[in-house]
Amino acid sequence: MPPTVRSQAAVLEKVGASLQLAELDLAAPGPQEVLVRIHASGVCHSDLSVMTGVIGTPLPAVLGHEAAGVVEAVGPGVTRVVPGDHVVLSWSPSCGACDECLRDLPQLCTAAWPAMFAGGLLDGTSRLSRAGEPVYHYSLISSFAERAVVSERSCVVIPREAPFEVASIVGCAVTTGVGAVWNTARVRPGDRVAVLGIGGVGLSAVMGAAAVGAWPIVAVDRVPDKLELARSCGATHAVQWAGSAEDTAEAIRSASGGGVDYAVEAIGRPEVGLAAFLSTRARGAAVLIGISKEGETLDLPLLSIPRLERRVLGSIYGSARPERDFRLILDLYLAGRLPLDRLVSGRLPLDGVNEALELVRAGLATRTVLLPTTEATGSHR
Q1: CA 244, CA 256: separation in Å to the nearest integer?
Q2: Are residues 178 and 95 in contact, defined by beta-carbon separation less than 8 angstroms?
Q3: Are 206 and 217 in contact (CB under 8 A)?
Q4: For the chain, what are the domain ranges?
Q5: Is the C-alpha dihedral spanning 325, 326, 330, 331 positive or negative?
Q6: Which CATH architecture has domain 4-157+344-370?
Q7: Residue 365 above 90 pLDDT?
Q8: What pLDDT score does 381 carry?
Q9: Which residue has the higher pLDDT, 113 or 38?
Q10: Band of the pLDDT at 325, cuts 50, 70, 90?
Q11: Radius of gyration of the chain (CA)
Q12: Which residue, 48, 143, 20, is CA-closest to 89?
């Protein structure tokens, strides 16, 4: 293949700016790298956090980290995929050799995380450029584009019958929410679960809890429409945010019959984390997924931790092994056990990326999916 291909992409030039569509040069995949044609890319709150400066990354950059597509070409030494494979992209391509990977914690890989924040691929360099100047990657993916070059370790082969728009959101939101329930908390049938924050991640956690037989499942949000959506996806009870952590926790305890075993927090705000913790019963755990601002702290009633054996569990990427969990999640979707298509609240072409991000900012989208290589129609519902 030629040394570079042209790819239309949405570029963030500086913090606070809108994304601009541009034609970029995309270098051919190097050793253990893969060129993927992007067919669908979910728009995540993390992308908005980069735009607003809450999450730092080198700029200019192509955002997007939740995607599915088709392998177009492979570099030397690639063994995991071949051209024509349908793949979901993982932003956590674990090395398999560092201390955390050897502890079976690939989501905490000490090779992938530094590379991610450097704005390149795993070797620290970018495959994107414009007029000879580098344009940086975001989260080792950069999927707001027609094509992406990624590590082969970011590619997980999926069934061809899986729709790209559903498969794309498995790459982040679904795995983060479902995995927090299945892997981090290890929820069992009959466990009591609350989910605070019914966006794409929270709704995925509701589905994951329903799939394993948790009961009751209490959905918590400020927006009544989101609570109704959660009910349609497996929540048994709904609690509207009561204005304070204490009052909301009391409402959850009342709805659940005395407190929950696991309270999944999917917002990243201290008051929501406190409500999650206070809603648990003895030996219960607050499972914190949401990404907070740098420097924010969570003030907990310390005495209740040893006396009631309450716990706090952190969860990044659902404590997942993407090569295992992506396929399992999609198999359950295809079998009708996880109604993941209900997460997709809108579909837009690539040039609708700023509209999609505004829907995230306004809290109006569960998951808007960009379709960079397909004509997209429709709006959020």
Answers
A1: 18
A2: no
A3: yes
A4: 4-157+344-370, 174-316
A5: negative
A6: Alpha-Beta Complex (3.90)
A7: no
A8: 34
A9: 38
A10: very high
A11: 20
A12: 143
User: Residue 88: CB partners within 8 Å, gap ≥ 6?
Assistant: 67, 68, 155, 156, 158, 167, 168, 170, 171, 322, 326, 330
Residue 375 pLDDT exceeds 50 = no
Nearest residue to 359 via CA among 350, 348, 371: 348
What's the whole-model pTM score? 0.94
The answer on pLDDT for 356 being more than 50 is: yes
Amino acid at site 36: V
Residues 6+ apart with CB under 8 A from 307: none
Q: Tell me the three state secondary structure of residue 151.
A: strand
Structure tokens at 118: 């450097």
pLDDT in the model for residue 380? 38
Q: What CATH homologous superfamily does 174-316 map to?
A: NAD(P)-binding Rossmann-like Domain (3.40.50.720)
Under 8 Å between Cβ of 25 and 14? no
Strands of 217-221's sheet in order across:
237-240, 217-221, 193-196, 260-265, 280-288, 311-314
Query: Beta-strand (E) ranges in the chain?
Result: 4-12, 20-27, 33-42, 61-62, 67-74, 86-89, 128-130, 133-137, 147-151, 155-157, 193-196, 217-221, 237-240, 260-265, 280-288, 311-314, 346-348, 368-370
The label of the residue with tokens 């999450």 reads 55
